[in-house]
Amino acid sequence: MPYRAPIDAYMRLLRDVVGYDRVAGTERFSEATPDMVAAILGEAGKLCEEVLAPLQRSGDLDPARLENGVVRTSKGFAEGYKAMAEGGWIATSAPEEFGGMGLPLTVTTCVNDMVGAACLSLQLNPLMTQGQIDALEHHASDDLRNLYLPKLISGEWAGTMNLTEPQAGSDVGALSSKAVPNGDGTYAITGQKIYISWGDNDFTENVCHLVLARLPDGVPGTKGISLFLVPKLIPDENGKPGVANDLHVVSLEHKMGLHGSPTCVMQYDGAKGWLVGEPHDGMRAMFTMMNNARLGVGVQGVSVAEGALQHALAYAQERKQGRTPDGTIIGHADVRRMLATMRAETFAARAIALSLAVAIDTGNATGDAEWKARAALLTPITKAFGTETGIKVADMGIQVHGGMGFIEETGAAQYLRDVRVTAIYEGTNGIQAMDLVGRKMMDGGEAAFALLDEIEAGAEAARANLPDLAEPVWQAAESLRETTEALLAREMPDRFGGALPYLRGFARVLGGHFHLRAAMAAPDSADARLAAFYILRMLPEHAGLLAEARSEVSALANLSTEDLVA
Amino acid sequence: MPYRAPIDAYMRLLRDVVGYDRVAGTERFSEATPDMVAAILGEAGKLCEEVLAPLQRSGDLDPARLENGVVRTSKGFAEGYKAMAEGGWIATSAPEEFGGMGLPLTVTTCVNDMVGAACLSLQLNPLMTQGQIDALEHHASDDLRNLYLPKLISGEWAGTMNLTEPQAGSDVGALSSKAVPNGDGTYAITGQKIYISWGDNDFTENVCHLVLARLPDGVPGTKGISLFLVPKLIPDENGKPGVANDLHVVSLEHKMGLHGSPTCVMQYDGAKGWLVGEPHDGMRAMFTMMNNARLGVGVQGVSVAEGALQHALAYAQERKQGRTPDGTIIGHADVRRMLATMRAETFAARAIALSLAVAIDTGNATGDAEWKARAALLTPITKAFGTETGIKVADMGIQVHGGMGFIEETGAAQYLRDVRVTAIYEGTNGIQAMDLVGRKMMDGGEAAFALLDEIEAGAEAARANLPDLAEPVWQAAESLRETTEALLAREMPDRFGGALPYLRGFARVLGGHFHLRAAMAAPDSADARLAAFYILRMLPEHAGLLAEARSEVSALANLSTEDLVA
């Protein structure tokens, strides 16, 4: 499966659509000029094209497996990982004082996007490490930071996140893992964790687990949870991996996809751990790491969309069938409709994700509360819409292949099987939607309305040059504004039944906004033609989504469980 | 995976929604009274619940395989098939003179729906046989009918359809298989066919292939194609399976799903075949069989939707998580939204399929051209919307399961993997949509407008009792009428770019019509509450779909292949 890194597309998005100039204009990121960014992305793209993309099928056909308690990874993954680590690509935004490049998260987001398109199951490994670096950087003691961060950033060690237990999935507060003080400042961690992505591997010196557990005096629920760093091998006095900790991989899950990524059941039997942050304050540290991880997972959806699109496009251009101008199926209107939809949707999801990264970077560099609020608002939208886009585009990729799409050898089905979990992990998309209409609207909708003002101002500015595109975007933003007001007028539990359609409608409108910006920047370009396709054909979907979000609560509430049976 | 046959739901649909009384009111089907139908469905349902549903996972975990050129089927499939055959369930609509029950296709559709929900990969076997029976009944000579039909109807022999070749998929006319007269009335068939579902098995005495091939004087394209019956074992003078024919299974495909159904590459090396119908007239016979097969495949989507819904509903009622009234996830608004959507969509797709079956039965029993036109119109809608519903509902079923949905052991993923191909085989859904706006509108839209008149009359009649539901259905029908007129005003190739959104919008409106009928029949029932959910929350989607269908052709046509690259 050849993959071509879309460097030009990133650079156009950064320049014309998501306002990367704001990031490069801050003191903190002043060295990350567009030219520098282009050079960096070019290097990362080459690695993805030449080294990582060839591993995609290997991960599927030669799944990670557990042998005598040790994870054996897919053929070629060790070499691929080492190439990433040697190139410095594990965590490009990590702080320079610990050996990182200190690049804007916007740049790392582009890198993650390319790595995920090339080989999603391997990409998940550094994504977990990036989350751990975030959490340690902001919450761990200096000793822990000095010991662990350089190893994680260099890729010598890998990081994992351990939240879920069999009875505690979306309801993290129900977890029962325990942490007992050892008396020497360390803790003995006991419990079982499930769904641990990359819980072990055979290519890093050490694997470091961030584990949520409850101290003896921790109250029930989320307020009694603390966060611990629990290494597979306990570092010795020189900081080298020493004796084995009391933890092991019980089993690997047999999954629909992502076969190259070992999903572990982890058992901790009094394993030695170090507290990260304050006692009982584990959820705060977890959220630090989860917010960026939600951007990361949303981008996984974008990655797969790009990969599936390139794959389908190549097939459509070579598959001879029917009476079309060049004899290939790309001449069929419905095939072309699918490919155009895939491209337009990928553009929208990527623009939303990069605009979130820009908001995070700007907020971090300036401390501006409005940018932080913008980032908070865009996080659930990016996660849910990005992953739904990955699923939708991968599904269309199968359809473009016709009968060959159902045959595993082509690889089209793998994209769908791999990406399906992204709508579930890191907070299901339903939870993202509840977060959007709940927590993210506790400001009375201020952040949402500020974004809508921006969308409408953009549409106003486009009226003179592109009236046919500006008007539908403006109208859609108005409709989203009315729906937002209608939802805000409802009490919290009543908002939830329409939360996901609302999130989808919001993303649909945002997509129109970004497509319009691209069209304004270059009215005779491919981007402008794609924008016309999106705005005239795909944007109208917002009406149905917002109508569903606004519809009377009773339509759902009146249905009893018995009503659903038959 | 337990399965409960929804007999009451079928009977309410037949009585209140799709007008089965019309079928039972014909002389031909006068014995198929509602009481008789209920008894028959009850028997079939028992078989599905007790014998077939337990085979669903077996087909996935123990795929059909090729051993020394012979197909070995999944564990338990032989027993399951024999139970179907002994019960007379292979082809319940087959003519009585050849041993069939002569039941309306509407009843067979319900039976197929249940068998497919219980075990889709096994159900595909008799579905192929049903198609072959159709083709032979209408096009074969008396000798062939007398020899083959009783064996096929009893299930002693199985039937297959051989259309596709590597270079001839959707473009059937490109096929290159050859048929040369042997001089004794038979023909020597040579060529390779791919994607042959159930091309062989180890539980029927014989396998009979219907093969499209070209006679020496056949012109290129579809007009030079003839249809041949080519048995695996050539019947001897007593009609018993005799010597092996010159054909064999080359290999089985490694597919995303439907692992229990062997998808064969078939090789014919001068195999002995018998002409079915007139020389060069093979496509006509093929269409006889394909039209009913399209209903059959649409129903496969409904089957999987029902199976996935029941499976997710059971999980949601037992999975403890979060603070809900009974502690299970079914109390979460977004989970309930998904389950309600799954139920409402399954109802709509099933009602559309059964209304098509009623139209076919009524047309066949009365010869009425309007019913035949109605059936022709509904065929592509049933196929495409039914299969898309299966995919959508199975996907939501995974999401209801959360993390467990991605783990194969739960079976949730299997529904999606199995059903995915239904949007591709038997004419891709894109081809169905082209058929709808092309061939099926060559009457100037007469059949579509007649159906719209009926929908609007139904809405008018509902205004007094259910004004809040009647008005949106009426409005949606008006919008569909306008879009239909707009499409008709376009030349043929220009219609195709909006064909699939149009088909989806048509199905969305039809779903509203049938939900409204159910609500009218019992305004305080579960069906009425489900109708309110569908009409108020899901029907608004038609607006975006129809806007896409109506949008300027240029939005798609302006995009070049290069524009799609990045």
TrEMBL record, chains A, B:
Residues 452-557 form the Acetyl-CoA dehydrogenase-like C-terminal domain. Keywords: FAD, Flavoprotein, Oxidoreductase. GO terms for molecular function: flavin adenine dinucleotide binding; oxidoreductase activity, acting on the CH-CH group of donors. Its EC number is 1.3.99.41. SUPFAM superfamilies: Acyl-CoA dehydrogenase C-terminal domain-like, Acyl-CoA dehydrogenase NM domain-like. Its cofactor is FAD. Gene3D superfamilies: Acyl-CoA dehydrogenase/oxidase, N-terminal domain, Butyryl-CoA Dehydrogenase, subunit A, domain 2, Butyryl-CoA Dehydrogenase, subunit A, domain 3. InterPro entries: Acyl-CoA_dh-like_C_dom (IPR025878), Acyl-CoA_Oxase/DH_mid-dom (IPR006091), Acyl-CoA_Oxase/DH_mid-dom_sf (IPR046373), AcylCo_DH-like_C (IPR036250), AcylCo_DH/oxidase_C (IPR009075), AcylCoA_DH/ox_N (IPR013786), AcylCoA_DH/ox_N_sf (IPR037069), AcylCoA_DH/oxidase_NM_dom_sf (IPR009100). It comes from the Bacteria. Residues 161-269 form the Acyl-CoA oxidase/dehydrogenase middle domain. It catalyses: 3-(methylsulfanyl)propanoyl-CoA + oxidized [electron-transfer flavoprotein] + H(+) = 3-(methylsulfanyl)acryloyl-CoA + reduced [electron-transfer flavoprotein]. Residues 78-156 form the Acyl-CoA dehydrogenase/oxidase N-terminal domain. It holds the Pfam family Acyl-CoA_dh_C. Residues 281-436 form the Acyl-CoA dehydrogenase/oxidase C-terminal domain. Belongs to the acyl-CoA dehydrogenase family. PANTHER family: ACYL-COA DEHYDROGENASE, BROAD-SPECIFICITY LINEAR ACYL-COA DEHYDROGENASE FADE5. Involved in the assimilation of dimethylsulphoniopropionate (DMSP), an important compound in the fixation of carbon in marine phytoplankton, by mediating the conversion of 3-(methylthio)propanoyl-CoA (MMPA-CoA) to 3-(methylthio)acryloyl-CoA (MTA-CoA). This is 3-methylmercaptopropionyl-CoA dehydrogenase.
